[in-house]
Design brief:
The structure holds 2 protein chains of 2 kinds.
Chain A lengths: L1 H20 L8 H5 L18 E5 L6 E6 L4 E5 L2 H28 L3 H4 L4 H10 L1 H14 L1 H20 L7 H6 L8 H16 L4 H11 L1 H7 L30 H5 L22 E7 L10 E9 L1 E2 L4 E7 L2 E7 L8 E3 L3 E7 L5 E6 L8 E4 L2 E4 L1 E9 L2 E10 L5 E3 L12 E6 L7 H10 L3 H8 L7 E7 L4 E6 L14 E2 L18 E3 L5 E4 L20 H12 L5 H8 L5 H12 L10 H9 L11 H24 L8 H10 L17 H21 L5 H5 L1 E5 L10 E4 L15 E3 L2 E5 L5 E5 L17 H5 L4 E2 L13 E9 L1
Parallel strand pairs in A: 1-29, 3-7, 6-23, 11-20
Antiparallel strand pairs in A: 2-3, 2-29, 4-5, 4-22, 5-25, 5-26, 7-8, 8-9, 9-10, 10-18, 11-17, 12-13, 14-15, 16-17, 18-19, 19-21, 23-24, 26-27, 27-28
Helix pairs in contact in A: 3-7, 3-9, 6-9, 10-11, 13-14, 17-20, 19-21
Chain B lengths: L1 H19 L4 H12 L4 H26 L3 H11 L4 H31 L3
Classes of the chains: A alpha+beta, B mainly alpha.
Chain lengths: 815, 118
């Protein structure tokens, strides 16, 4: 009898252990996951955690100390650069290991390894974009240069020094949730991270929908619907600037009019499905005011880069002091150096140039093997790269990516949709070309003056940015820096023929001809992703430009004098909506009050009396946003649905400027109805529609701007881990507004640097220094950020090792 | 007395083993202790059960309290969709307790089969 009991009991025990030990039956291996000595409890960081440590590593060259302040910002003081980068790698890994590794998995198209085949399309797209190929080309350049080679080698050694000491129980909680462990870091991962950012900031294009639109609308109409220059453009470089004659002149192919500008329905057939593209709202504001406009007489430089709001944050604040530099600012976990910030002499900030540096070419393969394609009247061999995509719990999937003279074939009849049987499309993307962007930051972090800054810029090819500069010696400047193809008119707007070399990029715009300005008479420089120059600039420069933020920034800066850092904080948080200012008079002009009833009057009154600010408690920003969206649908959906395009239509600035120019704008008419709609018809119809939308929102208390927008900082794993997100943040702003905070996108770092003798800097970002959701430092800056407040950065100097701002100390020694 | 000794021993050894070994070392300990300290099988079950109920419950509570239940609140929503860290602590304790209880019971039965007395 006992034997039977024993057997049953043994079986129950074994089953229990087995069931708790695997993630097959439960979503998690609960035994390990909940064991207080192994699982998630180990990630619950004590509120009084000490970060003091004494660490010995044989890779170090000398001694170094990391002084950590009360915000958990490290101040590295190292005897040499190599150790500083080693320690930066160590700190990034200690506080942000999971995110930095996850982002490099994403760049390399390896997410399926972690989460299974739900990510297969994402991974295939990443492989076919050639991000790893781009990273390999970057890495070759990084490692060919002794300066950057030493930087990444030491950075990698630092990351690995941390990984080597980590026990399974101390792994970041995301590894425990997803059930995997970190790999060793390597230099390629840093390059992958840089290329992931490049994809975010310079991976955008609309070539496929534009090509589909060409087949329906024709080029002449598309020039109007997607104009190169907006009427109200206030460019980065002030209007009226005279640009030197273009020194390079790309020659349009002889067949341009017959083969390219002609509608060709064979290129993109069927229902258009695009691979995942970066968020077009990725952008930024930056500006600098000269001493002549500030109260102190010293320049002030400001920057707020707009990215997806994520936890852990994309940024990690840091100060690095070595004999060759004293740089403070934010770094990217995954890469060495200070990316946006300042040093003893200068400050620098970035906004995306939004210029188009990615084109598609239609490829004609000889057969399904993709081994040969038509080029210059011959069959040319493609370089086939076989991509193995490992999948958690399943066999690997293999995808063959053909590399052509242009670049990798991203689209073909097997991806992303076999229901889109057009031509194979190869991408020509600037990010694939060899370059060494790490040198930019190496020199910027150490720049002393304008010449050093200008010299550093030469290493910045892609992603192109408007790089703002200010120095203690009183200079302010901005360069739109990057390497841009010199395009003939309309080159790259549509998918180009890939059968001969005449459509290829012929040359690049010489760097000296990139738009730039030093110490302008108006006393400030600024950029907000608008077109860099007006029509006086001689090159054809298509892009995904913004318009209204730049107008507001320039208007405000021009009017300001005796500027203080507090004024700059107000400007970064300004909610004034220039787009609404432009559109409201037109909308109100055509409203027919006699046809209104019920709550419509109340809403109309709200819009009429609106301060034009996207403030958090107002309902007008919500109503206006919905109204204009409804209007856009009424105007565009009929034609664009017929054209087979659902994700692209002309921009809001284009529409409002077209309506202001011409109240009989032909697209107003709904081509699906027998009658001809007028501007008054569509404005009134969209208003009435919006009243209904607003009433339903009011019924669930979601009509105020803050409630409607529901500003949310998602964890990188998004909806899967909502408890790790911060939702419902009451913060105003939005699209077209200087305070560019949208639902889950916006100022990912706000920085104001006052270049007085003793630098003053005010900073904040929507996150915290720790990536651990179980740490109080995970989101410790969020509330301050949401309130539009700043921390005064403590810029440590040598000799302040005893300051009461310092809370912890990590001592690094060779040994 | 044997019961108390057994319970304390299981708890202490489980803690020590878990410093270096995987979580299921609590099952090894709970299985082993009854081979050394002889009791009726049901008492061994209770000893193992309460040893880990107290150890895992206590540890989880102590760690979570020092963390002001910051992580537990998030994990509780994530894992069991309840905004209550104490539910998660209780589940943790019960998982450990069940494994240890059945292991101890099994160990106790094995010992009684081999040595034919109880």
């Amino acid at each position: 009898m006992r034997v039977v009991f024993f057997c049953i009991s043994l079986l129950v025990t074994a089953l229990l252990i087995f069931a708790l030990g695997t993630a097959t039956w439960a979503p998690l291996a609960l035994g390990n996951f909940l064991s207080p000595q192994h699982g998630i409890w180990q990630n619950a960081e004590p509120a009084k955690q000490s970060f003091d440590a004494e660490l010995n590593f044989p890779d170090l060259k000398g001694n170094a100390t990391v002084y950590i302040d009360e915000r958990l910002v490290p101040h590295i003081i190292a005897d040499n650069d190599e150790d500083a980068y080693f320690i930066q790698g160590y700190l990034h890994a200690k506080f942000r290991l999971w995110q930095m590794e996850f982002q490099t998995y994403a760049a390399a198209g390896r997410i399926s390894e972690i989460v299974g085949d739900v990510a297969l399309d994402y991974d295939r797209a990443a492989r076919r974009k050639g991000i790893t190929y781009a990273a390999e080309n970057l890495l070759k350049e990084i490692e060919a240069n002794p300066i950057t080679k030493a930087e990444v080698d030491n950075y990698t050694a630092g990351v690995n020094a941390y990984i080597a000491t980590i026990t399974e129980s101390r792994l970041p909680v995301e590894y425990k949730l997803l059930g995997y462990v970190p790999e060793k870091w390597n230099n390629l991962k840093t390059a992958l991270f840089v290329k992931q950012m490049t994809e975010t900031l310079a991976g955008f294009e609309d070539d496929l929908p534009m090509t589909k639109a060409l087949a329906y609308f024709g080029d002449a109409k598309l020039r109007l619907l997607f104009p190169q220059i907006a009427d109200s453009l206030d460019p980065v470089i002030p209007k009226g600037t005279i640009y030197p004659e273009a020194s390079v002149h790309p020659i349009p192919p002889a067949s341009k009019d017959s083969l390219y500008i002609q509608p060709d329905t064979t290129i993109v057939q069927g229902k258009l499905k695009e691979i995942e593209k970066p968020n077009p709202a990725n952008g930024s504001n930056n500006w600098a005011v000269s001493g002549s406009k500030t109260q102190s007489g010293a320049p002030i430089l400001c920057n707020d880069p707009h990215l997806n709001l994520t936890l852990p944050s994309i940024w990690y604040e840091i100060q690095m002091i070595t004999p060759s530099m004293n740089a403070y600012g934010v770094s990217f976990p995954g890469a060495p150096g200070v990316i946006i910030g300042f040093n003893d002499s200068i400050a620098f900030g970035f906004t995306s140039s939004e210029r188009d540096v990615k084109d598609y070419y239609a490829i004609q393969f000889k057969d399904e093997t993709k081994t040969q394609y038509r080029f210059n009247n011959d069959w040319k061999n493609a370089d086939l790269r076989i991509e193995e995509i490992k999948i958690k719990g399943k066999p690997s999937v293999y995808d063959t990516v053909a590399y052509t003279v242009f670049g990798p074939v991203t689209y073909d009849n097997s991806f992303p949709a076999s229901a889109m049987p057009g031509k194979a499309l190869a991408a020509r993307w600037k990010a694939h070309d060899p370059s060494n962007e790490l040198l930019l930051w190496h020199y910027l972090d150490r720049a002393k003056n304008y010449e050093d800054y200008e010299n550093a810029l030469q290493y910045f090819t892609c992603p192109a940015h408007n790089v703002a500069f200010a120095s203690k010696s009183g200079d302010i400047a901005i360069w739109q820096q990057g390497t841009f193809p010199a395009r003939w008119n309309r080159q790259g707007v549509y998918v180009m023929p890939g059968e001969d070399s005449s459509y290829m990029w012929q040359t690049f715009i010489p760097r000296s001809e990139n738009p730039h300005i030093l110490n302008p008479a108006r006393g400030f420089i600024s950029s907000a992703n608008q077109r860099p120059a007006d029509s006086a600039y001689h090159y054809f420069i298509p892009g995904e430009y913004d318009l209204y933020r730049g107008i507001e920034v320039n208007r405000r800066l021009a009017a300001m004098n005796n500027i203080t850092p507090q004024d700059m904080m107000k400007l970064q948080n300004d909610n004034y909506n220039v787009f609404a200012e432009t559109a409201r008079p037109l909308l109100l002009k055509y409203i027919n009050q006699s046809s209104l009833e019920g709550t419509a009057f109340k809403y109309l009154d709200t819009i009429q009396n609106w301060s034009l600010k996207n403030d958090v408690n107002l309902i007008a920003p919500t109503f206006f946003t919905l109204w204009f969206n409804n209007l856009e649908k009424q105007i565009w959906d009929d034609e664009f649905e017929k054209a087979g395009i659902d994700k692209m239509h002309p921009s809001q600035p284009t529409l409002i400027e077209a309506l202001l120019r011409d109240s009989a704008f032909s697209f107003i008419d709904n081509i699906n109805t027998p009658q001809t709609e007028t501007i008054a018809d569509v404005i009134n119809a969209s208003f009435i529609q919006t009243v209904a939308n607003a009433d339903s929102l009011a019924a669930i208390n979601k009509l105020s701007w803050g409630a409607y927008k529901n500003t949310t900082i998602y964890h990188l794993l998004k909806a899967k881990v909502m408890p790790f997100a911060r939702t419902g943040l009451m913060i105003g702003g939005g699209k077209h507004v200087v305070n560019a905070t949208q639902h889950d996108h916006g100022p990912s770092w706000r920085m104001i640097v006052h270049l007085t003798k003793e630098t003053e800097a005010y900073v904040v970002y929507p996150g915290g220094q720790s990536g651990n959701p179980g740490s109080p430092y995970y989101d410790s800056f969020v509330d301050k950020w949401a309130a539009g407040e700043y921390y005064k950065a403590w810029i440590m100097k040598k000799g302040e090792e005893g300051s009461d701002r310092l809370v912890w100390k990590m001592i690094f020694k060779k040994g | 007395m044997k019961f108390i000794v057994s319970l304390v021993l299981i708890a202490l050894l489980s803690f020590a083993f878990s410093l270096y070994l995987p979580w299921w070392s609590i099952a090894v300990v709970s299985f082993g202790v009854p081979l050394v300290i002889w009791q009726k099988p049901y008492l061994d079950f209770i000893a193992g059960f309460f040893a880990l109920l107290l150890l895992w419950g206590g540890l989880a509570w102590y760690i979570s309290a020092s963390n002001n239940h910051l992580l537990a609140e998030k994990m509780a929503v994530l894992v069991i969709n309840k905004n209550n860290p104490f539910t998660l602590i209780t589940i943790t304790a019960f998982i450990g307790a069940l494994v240890a209880g059945f292991s101890a019971f099994t160990g106790s039965l094995l010992r009684s089969i081999i040595w034919k007395k109880a």
